[in-house]
Amino acid sequence: MQTTQVVPLGDRPAWKALGAHFQQIRDKHLREFFEEDPTRGERLVVETGGILLDYSKNRINDETLKLLVQLAAESGLREKIEAMFRGDKINITENRAVLHVALRAPKSESIVLDGEDVVLAVHTVLEKMSGFAERVRSGEWKGYTGKKIRNVVNIGIGGSDLGPVMAYEALKHYSQRDLNFRFVSNVDGSDFAEAVQDLNADETLFLVASKTFTTQETMTNAHSAREWALAGLGGDEKAIAKHFVAISTNAKEVGKFGIDIENMFGFWDWVGGRYSMDSAIGLSTMVAIGPENFRAMLAGFHEMDVHFRTTPFEKNLPVLLGLLTVWYTDFFDAQTVAILPYEQYLKRFPAYLQQLTMESNGKRVTLDGTHVTTETGPIYWGEPGTNGQHSFYQLIHQGTRLIPCDFIGFYKTLNPLGRHHDMLMANVFAQAEALAFGKTAEQVKAEGTAGWLVPHRVFEGNRPSNTILADCISPEVLGKLVAMYEHAVFTQGAIWNIDSFDQWGVELGKVLATRILGELESAAESGGSHDSSTNSLIRKYRKNK
Ligand code: F6P
Q: Which of 314, 268, 346, 285 minimizes the C-alpha distance to 491?
């Protein structure tokens, strides 16, 4: 077990200094920060590879930044970054390396893990994926009856679904439009039924995506897909080879399912599910946008990786993003972070980030197993703008909670249409401005508002946000944005000294569900082995199902 030894968070000098510093600036208004330094809006900005982060509308000053950067150093962030890139087994509870950065390393690089050059292995799989994607896209890959494939259905859940569906939606503009893409994840049969209800089996290809190839939901959906396909193809088992491919680390289980290993695209245990959209798990993305665009996405990821690894913390975009989240979570007691993309193509981005951030940093013990002494991973949530403005923004503006927001906008749209894009972007800038500066009682009164109404119309302001801008949504930009959040999550985990790469918290529910399933299906009355609530709910279900 190799971990960077760091002193407990509460004992780090920068942490203590931040505590004292927080008392000094906790009530200071963003209006004052901006009045004191008119250049703040130009100064507190970093840009890398065309991704701009304006973090000036945060409740920080130069001293805060200095102390946060010092905290990162005292937390061993630099050493931890190197350990990850080197392939050390930093996922200590699973004794695994964490090498998603190898998935986008250029062929010229080499990372040796347990005697194997993993970059070489990555590129071998990429070649195989490219060949397959080209054959499907060109129509060369034929179904069992000789028809071209028109429908591609990805079956997976968690990281084997959220990344693929998010990337497909984000990059739809670049996709081959004569192919239909569907994504089935939920064990609720309605998900599968609706996904295939207008499809013909002889034109449909299933990509079964599962790192373990044992996940209950995915296997159940895959078996239903198998039955559906066989029913539509005359029942000949040989048809499976033309209509099913697997993406997995588990060749044995893939074989057992009946998928030819030739039609399996592999990856490795050092790729976490939520860090896998750029591995073979991204096969649906590659089929949709083509190998060249997929490689452009990988290049975007890699550019952000290099920035994260080599840039001093005070200019390091993911590090700053991560540190700001620690600042609000642990000092201001903020419980959530809102992700607000002003780009319809990013409509699944908040959902994708929920798994990335919360499965990674939803931890309550440090690497040495002791209970953490601060709050860890905040709740991430969000919706695209401007839709969210007409739904939950009221609470962000005038509610009692502090909700740091990430606004994500683009200089250009892929669909220029009259004034739409200027209107969209006017809203990004207006929301961040309103949140930061608000509207005082004096301003409200000066508008002639009746006295009793004034408190209702006051905006306190002082609500922090980041504004992230890029040129337009593209494979390369998407790669950069995802890598930016991956590394921001890493930064937070390094400060909290937790294992951001395991997910033991999802296990208990899975075990109990398997046990309860037996009770729901058994002919015999359940013995009532649970608590009185669960027993009674099971009885009700059995009676009424
Ligand atoms: O929910 C737990 C989890 O293990 C996620 O981490 C993972 O992304 C998902 O299940 C799916 O796992 P698999 O790819 O092995 O089917």
A: 314
In angstroms, the CA 514 to CA 213 distance is 17
In whole angstroms, give the CA distance from residue 470 to residue 47: 10
Q: Average per-residue pLDDT in the chain?
A: 97
Task: Summarize pLDDT for 187-201 with one digit per residue, the tens.
Answer: 999 999 999 999 999
Cα–ligand 1 centroid distance for 272 (angstroms): 9
Q: Is 215 in the pocket of ligand 1 (CB under 6 A)?
A: yes
- Residues assigned a catalytic role: 359, 390, 510
Prediction pTM value: 0.97
Element (H, E) at 84: helix 77-86
pLDDT of the residue at 6? 82
Q: What angle do CA 445, 448, 454 make, to 5 degrees?
A: 40
Q: Write the single-letter amino acid at 310.
A: T
Structure tokens that stand for 331 in this block: 């000092």
Is the distance from CB of 480 to CB of 300 less than 8 angstroms?
A: yes
Sign of CA dihedral 357, 360, 366, 367: negative
Please give the Cα distance from 18 to 37 (Å, whole number).
Answer: 21
> What φ, ψ does residue 99 adopt, rounded to 5°?
-125, 35
Instruction: State the sign of the Cα–Cα–Cα–Cα dihedral 258, 262, 268, 273.
Output: negative
Distance (Å) from CA 239 to ligand 1 centroid: 28
Packing angle between helix 13-25 and helix 62-74, nearest 10 degrees?
Answer: 160
Contact at 8 Å (CB) between 338 and 405?
yes
Ligand 1 atom 9 nearest Cα: 158
Give 156 Cα–ligand 1 centroid separation in angstroms: 8
* The ligand 1 atom nearest the CA atom of 281: 14
Task: Report how far residue 22's alpha carbon sits from residue 16's, in angstroms, rounded to the nearest whole number.
Answer: 10
Q: What's the rounded Cα separation, in Å, for the pair 141 and 135?
A: 5
Ligand 1 contact via 275 beta carbon (within 6 Å) = no
Residue 2 has pLDDT above 70, yes or no: no
The DSSP output letter for 96 is B
Strand partners, 380: 337
Residue identified by tokens 């994260």 is 308
3-state DSSP call for residue 140? Answer: coil
Q: Are 195 and 189 in contact (CB under 8 A)?
A: no
The radius of gyration of the chain's CA atoms, rounded to the nearest angstrom, is 25
Separation of alpha carbons 177 and 161, rounded Å: 21
